[in-house]
Amino acid sequence: MTTAGNDTAGTREDEFLAGVYQQVIGAQATQYAAAYDAGAGLARFRDWLQDHAAASPEPDADQMVAQLYSIHYQPLVRLATLLVRDVATAEEVVQDAFVAMRGGWQRLGDTEKALAYLRQAVVNRSRSVLRHRTAAGSNPQQALPDTPGAEGGAPGLLEQDAARTALRGLPERQREAIVLRYYAGLSEGEIAAAMGISRGAVKSHTARGLSALGAALEQASSQPATPHDSDDAGSSHE
Amino acid sequence: MSGGQIPKDHAEELGECFAAYAPGLFGYACALAWGDHALADDLVQSAFMAAARQWPTLRCLRDAQRLRWLQTTVGNLAISAFRRNEAFGDRLPRLEAVFRPRPADTHAEAVSGIALERCWRAIQALPPQQHAVAVMRWLFAMTNTQIAAALGIADGTVAAHLSAVRGKLKAALGPYDPFGSEDGPSS
Hints:
The complex is a heterodimer.
Chain A: H1 12-34, H2 38-51, H3 57-84, H4 87-103, H5 105-108, H6 111-136, H7 140-143, H8 157-169, H9 172-183, H10 188-195, H11 199-222, H12 227-234
Helix pairs in contact in A: 3-4, 3-6, 4-6, 6-10, 8-11, 9-11, 10-11
Chain B: H1 8-32, H2 37-53, H3 55-58, H4 63-84, H5 95-98, H6 113-124, H7 128-139, H8 144-151, H9 155-173
Helix pairs in contact in B: 1-2, 1-4, 2-4, 4-7, 6-9, 7-9, 8-9
């Protein structure tokens, strides 16, 4: 009889006995395998899988993102255009925002949040575009002609142009607040979320932006209009 | 976050994997569980549940690697089932019913079918801890130290169990043991 401490591992006898053991177990396993009711086993496992299946957000997500895209792409581009002042960059900004939003869809979960996220992403990306521009020293005022498209010479356009020009002159945050409020038509709460600031701050940016705009527009309408008329109206005529 | 986490495509792959490997794994589990079909069935299910949780990793493996992972998992689950279930030994009487003589094809190198059958009976008659030690040693190729750690027993106890199992196998083999009964501790 071998003693407990005397492990015969590695000897030929040990190998032989291990082989016998493996052979016996293997033979039994083969027999048992043949007796297995694979259909029932698979059905049981499928039930379990079903109980633990993910809420399969994938196809839904794609559909919802596509829907968001078709509804909000153009408005967001218009909004971004007002912020970054050229259409090509604006489209890039919005597309990037959509890509990021799609990536985080699982976390966002629904269209409401996704839209808020998109707006915020557009605002943030627009900011960084502007920051890059100032850093690069390029002059955005000249770099971009105004929005392309069918804006040939409609009557209201002069004012609109003046408003755009005035808008450009505003500080960044005021411009954002005005654009989001009056061009995108967002509520104060939505603007606060998009800009990442408080409602109170939105209020003050909007108020200051509006009064600055008003002043700028007034100036614009009094200056370049026909010099004679204004002269007539204002200064002495005898 | 918790609960449903298995994407649909993974579930399909898991179903295919199950269909391919479950019978073989069941046989293996059943042999480890001394022929207890119900326990073996549970072991297979549990192994595939574990696989489902690891599937992002497992699906990248080659088939052979995946099978090895499943076999190891079944084995480990079986061992812990032995440990948890003190009544495991009570299942022994049921074994007679499932026992069938092995097919008379391969395996007949040196040892006759009758001897192997006697070995199987000897394996079935092992106390649970000896059985666990034998499985870990000869099927999982674990070292004595690893086995001791896994079962929470002393190294010496592992060696003692192994030597007891060897003795029983030798006895079952009888004349088919090429090392003979005179191959005593003197060597």
